[in-house]
Amino acid sequence: ASSSATNPSVRVVLQQCMGAQLMVQPATEGSEPQFVEIRRGVIVYICFLKGATKTLAEKMAKLALTVRLSESDDGKLVSVIDLPGDVLIIPQATLGGTVKGKVMQYHKNIAKDEGLQLYSEFVSVFRKTIEKNEKCATAGCVVRHGTYGNRQVFSCQTNGPYTHLIEL
Amino acid sequence: ASSSATNPSVRVVLQQCMGAQLMVQPATEGSEPQFVEIRRGVIVYICFLKGATKTLAEKMAKLALTVRLSESDDGKLVSVIDLPGDVLIIPQATLGGTVKGKVMQYHKNIAKDEGLQLYSEFVSVFRKTIEKNEKCATAGCVVRHGTYGNRQVFSCQTNGPYTHLIEL
Q1: Which candidate, B101, B108, B11, B88, places its Cα nearest to that of A95?
Q2: A51-102 pLDDT per residue, tens
């Protein structure tokens, strides 16, 4: 795992938060917009590029769950599982962009149908891991995620986002 | 400019926001914490790695100011200058991390004194550009920034963060 793989196919940006909210369903005539939210935990922005596979998607999910980037109450860095904390996964195709002059191009991004499949598998690893972990279950930790392809209307509160980039 | 330079020395993550707040001075005995805030505009997370130079810092600042990633009222993508919008610059050394097992290592980050110097120059380009731009001045646009080396206690509200990575 490197944070500057030469030709990455899975890219995540991780941020620590004390709380975050994401709109998963815009308002329609007669219905309010719908939001999901998390408490303390990690925000995972995920982008799949050409060459991404189910294996790499799962590997990245496991890495995001186990890398020690969350600050525990006694100031130690622990994984989000050991915190234990919530997870908010946000599909973020824009992360695949490359600057060309004054615009971004997205030629390296994976096709939308493939990306959707990988995204579902990626989310699934988080759900299964958090649900079967006793500490997380006892603490009532949740995994929430955005709708693939939607605009990610989003807000967050952090005690320091401690932003990290990981590429595979 | 590439978003996956083989050995990048300047890395930014850009997010669009409708508003953002950053603590620049923690509370001390007898004084409240101090915050800066911006309205609609762009959040610029900046990290300098080994090999970063003043030239590259200035180039990245100009790129962040001119790349068309801000959504105007009529739905077009324009630069933050043309929006016109505010800028919040957040030093984020953690962006230089590389995964090693379950921890992040920061061997590639620039030395702190050099980073501070480049950070000052980086911020300066934003200030000068926004201040001398008539459209920005008329709209009362501001450049705000975090304190280098501090914890970046932060919150934001977005209409879609539209997260981008740019490396030089």
Answers
A1: B11
A2: 999 999 999 999 999 999 999 999 999 999 999 999 999 999 999 999 999 9
Residues of A in contact with B151 (CB under 8 A): 159-160
Q: The tokens of A129 are what?
A: 């891991």
Rounded to whole angstroms, the Cα distance separating A35 from A27 reads 10
What residues contact residue A69 under an 8 Å CB cut-off, 6+ apart? A14, A16, A42, A77, A79, A80, A162, A164, B104
Tell me if B79 and A102 make a contact (CB, 8 A cut-off).
yes
Q: Is the ipTM of this complex over 0.90?
A: yes
CB contact under 8 Å between B67 and A104, yes or no, is yes
Tell me whether residues A160 and B154 touch, CB distance under 8 A. yes
Total-model pTM: 0.96
Chain A interface, mutation test: which of B63, B76, B81, B155, most A Cβ atoms within 10 Å?
A: B155
3-class DSSP state of B147 = coil
Out of B6, B69, B98, name the one closest to residue A6 (CB).
Answer: B6
